[in-house]
Amino acid sequence: MDAVEADPRWDGLDLGCSLAAGRADADSDVDVGLWHTPGARPPDAEIDALVRGLGHVVEDSAQPWDGVPRWWVQYADGAQLDLVVLDAADRTGRPPGMVALVDRSGRGATEFVPTVLHVRPGEPRAWLLDGWKALANVAKYLRRGSLLEAVDQLHRLVTKCFRLWAAGEGVDYHSFGLTSLLDATGVDLPAGIEATYATIASGAVATAAETLAGLLRAAGRHADSMLDTPLADHVTAKLRRAATGVAGAA
After folding, report:
1. How far apart are CA 137 and CA 115, in angstroms?
2. Which residue of 91, 101, 125, 230 has the smallest Cβ count within 10 Å?
3. Distance CA 78, CA 211 (A)
4. Is 201:238 a contact under the CB 8 Å cutoff?
5. What is each CA distance from 241 to 134, 197, 208, 234, 236, in whole angstroms?
6. Is 170 left (phi over 0), alpha (psi -120 to 50) or beta?
């Protein structure tokens, strides 16, 4: 705050995530949005100097995130900074859950609803189809005996299940899946999800995949009671054939 307030080129500083919500612990990142005055972003070298001036730096990374300039910094005292730099001309308000620490122009005085806060049309169906595609890949890799690739697809599928479940639960920022579910109060995780984390063994992968087939269908209907696809039966049958082959080989 001191560094931003001392430089008139910065219009605002927002704090988000666990610190803003009051549920942070010693391992929480400091997640901030740094707003520059319209059309006048300071050079990257100066932003790098700013974050390095906050403490002894172990390492920093300046990598764009979703097209937005982003800095991730690890400090020697254990603190981690996750900072995105934005143009104040694009600031239409303050998202729910964010705290405006600095707000020169008053743009962050009112709250607005970002598009990622709630479910958007077509999102659940896209996640459902991607989940069934991942499960089809699991069946393929099981047949080939490529278990690391199969487990990688299981993780992809679990992510889609959590997103669908979060959409059904109506939690904010549903696309973050498990994180949003754990951050919400009074929300249960999909029953049986623990059984879907497999060890690197063909039988364990096949069992987890069959469990996920049921969970994916249930999560889709949880997000939208009418949501289904003929791909579900097709892929489930494919998976059963692959799992039978694994059991026969054993």
Report:
1. 31
2. 230
3. 39
4. no
5. 16, 21, 15, 11, 9
6. left
Residue 87 has which token pair? 């143009």
pLDDT higher for 36 or 23?
36
Q: How confident is the model at residue 223 (pLDDT cuts 50, 70, 90)?
A: very high
pLDDT at 3: 92
Q: Give me the residues paired with residue 75 across strands.
A: 57
Give the architecture (CATH level 2) of 123-249: Up-down Bundle (1.20)
- SS3 of 108, please? coil
CA-based diameter of the chain, in Å?
A: 71
Which architecture characterizes domain 2-103 according to CATH? 2-Layer Sandwich (3.30)
Contact 223, 165 (CB under 8 A): yes
3-state secondary structure (DSSP) of residue 202: helix
Cβ-proximal residues to 68 (8 Å cutoff; 6+ apart), any chain: 84, 85, 86
CB atoms within 10 A of CB 216: 26
**Across 58-75, average pLDDT:** 91
Parse the chain into domains and list their residue ranges.
2-103, 123-249
Kindly state the tokens that stand for 176: 């973050």
pTM listed for this prediction: 0.79
In the predicted structure, residue 249 carries a pLDDT above the cut 60: no
Confidence of residue 211 (pLDDT cuts 50, 70, 90): very high
Q: Tell me, what amino acid is at 115?
A: T
The dihedral built from the CA positions of residue 203, 204, 206 and 210, taken in this order, carries a sign that is positive
Task: Identify whether the C-beta of residue 223 lies closer than 8 Å to the C-beta of residue 119.
Answer: yes
27 pLDDT tier (thresholds 50, 70, 90): confident
Q: Write down the residue that tokens 């620490």 correspond to.
A: 101
